[in-house]
């Protein structure tokens, strides 16, 4: 048995290794005691006396088994181990008092023999070990290793055998050939099996329960039963409680009170820890771990609440969407840890720039959002400008002492004001702010743009468009009019797409394709483009090729082939009678349907060589006439709604004119329908 326990102690790698070292020492003491007892049995005529040196070793063996259990389950808190020791002491005291009073005491003469006391100590120590194993091991852990369970079974057998030995010794009926020896031999076999199990089968370390199973019923029940039994014995004897019964009752119930105090303290600590964990979970559920700002989920919940409150009070509500410019370059140049520093410092600066009543959240990646309750558009623009300034004007210091000066693009949108979104449409409000943010980036970054505001027509809508094709679009616009065309169509296409709820990718495509929709006219003779009178059929055939030519240029001369179908389809009609492919309805890309309306409006409102501009009411009537035939009715309605809200601005004059464009005045040409005008002007 001792070699097997030693083998288990060498092979076990978990916290149970000290347990097996202690069990090895315990079994070594037990083996030595057995050898001494055997020596007494064979050498002494009357056998071994009690107490003897063997008894000392046996009791020492039990004494080492007690810390083996405690050490083996050392993962529990010290107060739980203390409670386990107290439970074991209470059970041992109760069992000892009841056993001595009810069984052993009546069999002894008036003065107890020391041998009987020693013999009675064996089962008490076994009970203590088993109680410790139950309270600290089984109740305090999710699972107990099989080897330890087998050890517990071994000590249970030992306790039963010791109880029998104690009784037989008291009545002087024990001899070396007693059947009780089988119990101790079975204990030894079980300990060998436990050691082999621990040595050969890897066992997981006992996992501690966060909230252990309180074994209060065990010591309480044993204590109450013991006191009742002792009181009954005293009552049957002389009719009054004996002093020993009172002392034992006081010790047991005092121990139970101390135990309850330990349980209360443990539960209070757990409740405090749980409350702190819940508060931390609540904080983590609504905050961003990197910046400490509120997260997107909490922002959306607060947006709904603030929108409802603003609707009840008749107040305005504004949003500011903030996106760091070229943040990927910071990560690529300085590393992601530096990028995290920039994000955290950005969050800190935004919080310093906004009003105390405003809510700041991290919307995702390098994008932030500010919720401004009670703020109209002008107030929101002032706050947004403060944010932009504090981000751009003061450099940020990285951990390696290098400095970066990131900028941000900001989009502002307001609800509950004239021309703004209704407060009930919070998703539309977010969409407006996001669209304004995109326009801020498209117009050069490091700027604030409000949803629906007129952007600078001199700036390109998409900074990633090929510069040569943008220049080509400007040259064509300059040939046909003294006012902008493609920049305005791009701007209005973006607003119309936002109104329709398109995603950012579709919005970018619509704005970019609108900026380049007329580049195919470079292959159309200028005489045809600027002809004051009606075009011949041959001239119409040449002019109508320009959408396909524009698409071909995008494929051949740029990496924006994704825009080619949109440019090719901007003269298709909703009823299928357009060109070049005769597409109809939803077969026409939505971006092309948007460009068709915006292009027509810009053509009708401009002074062209072949036509004087129409008034706003005349142009509006032309759009209404083409609704459902030439134009997608949904797109036409969205455009006219923007017109009514004042979001469709006037055409801005061009800064430069082509020197070779004829300045000769031309008479207006009466066009019967918008169809013919759009076919001519594109």
Notes on the protein architecture:
This protein has 682 residues and is mostly helical. Helix content is 61%, strand content 5%. The chain contains 25 helices and seven strands. The chain has a five-stranded mixed β-sheet with strand order 2-3-1-6-7, sandwiched between helices. A two-stranded antiparallel sheet has the order 4-5. The longest helix has 44 residues, at 243-286.
Q: What is the spatial order of strands in the main beta sheet?
A: 2-3-1-6-7
Helix content estimate: 55-70%
Helix count equals: 25
Taking all Cα atoms into account, the compactness measure Rg is 46 Å
Q: By helix and strand content, what is the structural category? A: mainly alpha
Low-confidence stretches: 454-461, 655-682
What's the end-to-end separation, in Å? 100 Å
**Assembly state:** single chain
Question: Biggest sheet, open or closed, and with what strands and sense?
Answer: 5 strands, mixed
Determine the mean pLDDT.
Answer: 80
Strand content: 5-15%
Question: How does the overall form come out from the CA principal axes?
Answer: elongated
Total strand segments: 7
Question: Quick summary of this structure?
Answer:
61% of the residues lie in helices and 5% in strands. With 682 residues, the protein is mainly alpha-helical.
Blueprint of the fold:
Elements: H1 2-11, H2 17-43, H3 53-72, H4 78-107, H5 114-138, H6 146-170, H7 180-200, H8 217-237, H9 243-286, H10 296-313, E1 317-324, H11 327-334, H12 336-353, E2 359-364, E3 367-373, H13 377-393, E4 396-397, E5 403-404, E6 408-415, H14 426-442, E7 448-450, H15 467-480, H16 486-500, H17 504-515, H18 526-529, H19 537-543, H20 546-557, H21 564-568, H22 590-605, H23 616-626, H24 633-644, H25 674-681
Parallel strand pairs: 6-7
Antiparallel strand pairs: 1-3, 1-6, 2-3, 4-5
